[in-house]
Design goal:
Blueprint lengths: L1 E2 L8 E4 L2 E11 L7 E8 L5 E7 L3 E4 L2 E12 L2 E6 L5 E5 L14 E7 L5 E5 L3 E9 L12 E6 L4 E5 L7 E5 L4 E6 L2
Antiparallel strand pairs: 1-6, 2-3, 2-6, 3-4, 4-5, 7-8, 7-10, 8-9, 10-11, 12-13, 12-15, 13-14, 15-16
Length: about 190
C-alpha cells in the first residue's frame, strides 16, 4: 500500500476495480482546508482518461510493474504484434492499449509495461519522437512563408499531421508522439 505522497507520473494503481496509470498530478495545499492531490488517470483497459482528486494521506493500492523493450512487428486488424528484444517471445496487443498507434512504424522499439503479478501487458510507451516519411501532401506555394502557415500531410503510417509549407512528399520529419505534432525536418 502506498499513500498520496507516493503519487508520481507513470505510477500504476488499482482504483474503482480497474488499473490506472498516472499521467499528471499536482499536490495542492490551499490556504483553507486540507491538502489534496489532483490527478489525471488513464485506464489501461479502456484507454479513457479521468480527472480525480485524492485527499492527502489517503491509502492507494499501487501495482508492481516492470518495463521491457519490444520491437513492433506488424498490424493485423485491431491487433498489433510485438517481439521481446531479449528473449524473442512475441505478444499481441489490442489497438486500445497503444497511445498513438497511427505513429507506430514497423521495426520501432517501444517500452511495454507489464504487471508482475499476472504477467499481463498493461500499456505501451512510445519513444518521445519518431521519424516518418511524408507519403502525400499538397505542394507548398512559393511566397506563402511569411507566417507560420501549415498544411496537412499523410505519413507512411497513415497518420495526418500538420506540417510547414516547405515540407514535400518524400521528406522525413520528426514527430512528437505525445502530441502527434511536427517537430522538425530530418536531413539525411
Amino acid at each position: 500500500m502506498a499513500t498520496t505522497s507516493d503519487i508520481r507520473n507513470g505510477l500504476c494503481l488499482k482504483y474503482n476495480n480497474d488499473i490506472f496509470k498516472v499521467i499528471e498530478f499536482l499536490h495542492v495545499k490551499p490556504g483553507k482546508g486540507p491538502a489534496f492531490v489532483r490527478t489525471k488517470l488513464k485506464s489501461l483497459s479502456t484507454g479513457k482518461v479521468l480527472d480525480n482528486t485524492f485527499p492527502a494521506g489517503r491509502k492507494i493500492e499501487d501495482i508492481r510493474v516492470e518495463t521491457q523493450k519490444f520491437q513492433y512487428l506488424y498490424p493485423e486488424g485491431d491487433l498489433f504484434h510485438f517481439m521481446n528484444t531479449q528473449d524473442y517471445n512475441q505478444i499481441t496487443l489490442q489497438k486500445a492499449t497503444l497511445d498513438a498507434p497511427e505513429l507506430l512504424k514497423e521495426g520501432e522499439i517501444v517500452t511495454i509495461i507489464i504487471n508482475t503479478e499476472d504477467e499481463m501487458p498493461l500499456s505501451v510507451e512510445m519513444p518521445n519522437s519518431v521519424i516518418l516519411e511524408i507519403a502525400h501532401t499538397e505542394p507548398g506555394v512559393k511566397g506563402n512563408t511569411a507566417t507560420n502557415a501549415t498544411k496537412p500531410a499523410t505519413t507512411e503510417t497513415g497518420a495526418t499531421i500538420n506540417v510547414p509549407l516547405f515540407i514535400n512528399e518524400g521528406d522525413k520529419i520528426k514527430v512528437d508522439t505525445a502530441k502527434g505534432a511536427y517537430l522538425e525536418r530530418v536531413k539525411e
